[in-house]
Every structure is written in C-alpha cells, then in structure tokens.
Design goal:
By secondary structure, the chain is α/β, with parallel strands linked by helices. It has 17 helices and eight strands. Strand 3, helix 10 and strand 4 form a beta-alpha-beta unit. Helix 5 packs across helix 6, helix 6 packs across helix 8 and helix 15 packs across helix 16.
Amino acid sequence: MVNIATVLLKKQALARRSFSMKYKRQAINAINDMMLHGHTVRTASNALNLPHWYYRRWRKSVSKADRLASVDAVVPSGITGDTRKVHPGRLGQLAPFQDELLASVFEMRQQGLPVNTRTLRKEAARVSDEFKTKSTQAKISSVYRFIKKVGLSNRVSTHVAQKDHRETEEESTHFLTLMRQKVSGMDPEDVLNMDQTPIPYSFPSSRTLEKKGAKTINVRTSTTDTKRATLAATVTASGKLLTPFLIFKGKTNGRIANRELQTYPDECIYACQEKAWMDESMMNKWIDLVLIPWKNSRDPSITPLLILDAYRVHMMGSIVNRIQALGIEVQHIPAGCTYLCQPVDVGINRSIKKAMTEQWEEWMIHGGGVEGGIAKTPTRRQVAEWIVGSYRNISEQTARNAWKKRGYQWFID
C-alpha cells in the first residue's frame, strides 16, 4: 500500500523532471521501503512516476555525496540538500589557488584569528596577479563563488578572546587547581569574588517581529544610547551578595554625588566618576564602603580570599597592598580566563542585565519611555531602581550556581 509520503513524492515527480539530492534520497528510501513489502524496483518506481533506471543511477549519486560528506575535508556546499548534481562544475578563477587559499584560511583559524571575505580577497590578490586587476565587485563575486564552492560559510563567533582558547583553558585549569588547594578547609563565606560591568541606560534589540517582505525594519531606542554606568558586584562562595556599588558619570564631589545620589534606594552604594569608570579612587571607595564592613563582620582570626580578574586597577600595587593589609588575600584570575573562572561574570552580571532588559522594555512600552513620538532616556534614579530590583531578585542558590558553573563545584558541594 502506498503511503502519504509516497503520494507526495509522486506529485513532485509529475511537477518537475529535475531533482534535488534531497528528493533523490527520499525517493530511494521510498522505493526501498516498498521493496520490503514485495514490490519490484520497476513497480515501486512506477508508483513514484519515475523511470526504473533512475533508482540505480540515483543510488550511485547519493552514495558519492555521502562519501564526500563523510570525509574530514572541505566539500561542495549543498551536496546533501538542494543541489541537483554531485559535480564540480566549471572551474572558477581561484580554483588553481584553492589549496593555497584554504591553507591560509585554516592557518589563521587555528590561531583563533577572524577570517572574512575581505581577508580572503587580500589573500587572493596576493597569490594571483590576474585577480588583483579585477574590479572590486568582480573580486567580491569571485570570492563568494569560491567560498560556496569549497563549503565555507560566514559564522558568528561563540567566544571572543585575546589568547588562543587552548592556552586559556590550560591556564584556567592550573588556576582552578591552585584555588582548590587554597580554599581547602575554608568556609565558603570567607571566599568572595568581585567584578565590575558596564550598565547601559538602554537595552535595544536588533531583532523584531515584522511582516514578511518588509524592506525597512525600524527599532526604537533611547535618545542617548551610549550612556552607561558601572556596577561592581560582589558575591561570596556561599551565595551571599554584598552591597552593590554603582558608579555614575559626574564630578566626584559635585551636585550629583553630594545631593542627588543621597535620595536613591539605600540598598546600593553610589559614587560618581568623570567617565563612570572603576579607577583607583573608585576602587578605594569600594574597599571603604563594601569590603571593610564585610571584613569586620567576619572572624578576625581568619584570612579571607578575594578573587579579582586581571583588570588594570585590580592589579595596582596600592590596591593589592591595601586589601592585603586588611588581612585579606588577593588572587588574580589569569588574563583572558575570566569567562572560565569568574563566578560574578556569568552568574550575577548576566542575570542583572537580563532583568534590566525586561524592565527597560516594560518602561518603553508601558512606562512612558516614549513621549511625543520620541524615545526618552531613563534617568539615573530609574537605572538605580532597576539595578536594586534586579540585584534583590538574585537568590543565594543562583549565586552558588554561578560558582559551580565556573568550576568551583568541588568547593561548594
């Protein structure tokens, strides 16, 4: 009995006489299925309205495509999908230089360097004098044909780093091994991590729902989309969040610092810096207002451990010496290993920004974020309130999970 899939295949065969590799594969599978139920190749092919000799020809073609797709090499794109033939096609201008160009691409990728079509055009011009004389548009077209031919495609990076990922992974492993020795027998309350992150005033997305075929996609954002503050978040390995430290742009002893900030929610500590950065003076203020009160609440006979990344101000001798003078050991995460070793980075900052994005979107839609057809900029007070609300909603379990995700589960469990 012919099933629904077979009927659909038959209709497609009637509608066209040129077939994609995907259709050929489906037809072969349908014929094989019918043959298991007593049909011959001829009767099964007739059921699909196909000449019976297509079956043997297509089996060879599909087998060739499968062999090409299974080898660890660059293969023509689409050989298992919409392409109609497994055939190299007409040689392109860059075909004689294919091996040399691919070697350059793979060498750069092995080093973690980004490679785009512009890079490839430069490499092609280097190896081919004829290519160098082409117009810009001809070069672009030639390179696009080349990357499609050899099976390359533009991809979005999943990780950005200054070092090779293998080097950072090795360094992070060594760091976590060292940390395991240092925290052995310590109370999780006495191990903490601090990190600062920029907090934008708006969180627009470049993606939106829109009707199909629309050529212009407008997205509303705030009038000053570059305004930002800096948040220093601190969390212990037990999951306790210390008071957040929020830096706004302004004079250190100006009107904003001396008057306005005093009226903001008292669950956060506020300060002003000319560029809203965490510099030496702000780091000292964080020590005075966040770190010292926490240290005074701990057993004075215990030496806590503070984990910081390799940010310049964290490495300054004046800062490290002052913290250690308080009886707190400082341990720096190796440069480039933050994403692998810093709990605050993944567990706290990301949660805060996600919650703030939701609050900003709600404000833009229902809270008066657009007035008279113009998108407004959130006030400092609104940003502070969003920060406090987001911070308040982070549970101890979430904070503990942040340590586990960064490789400290052996210490937390």
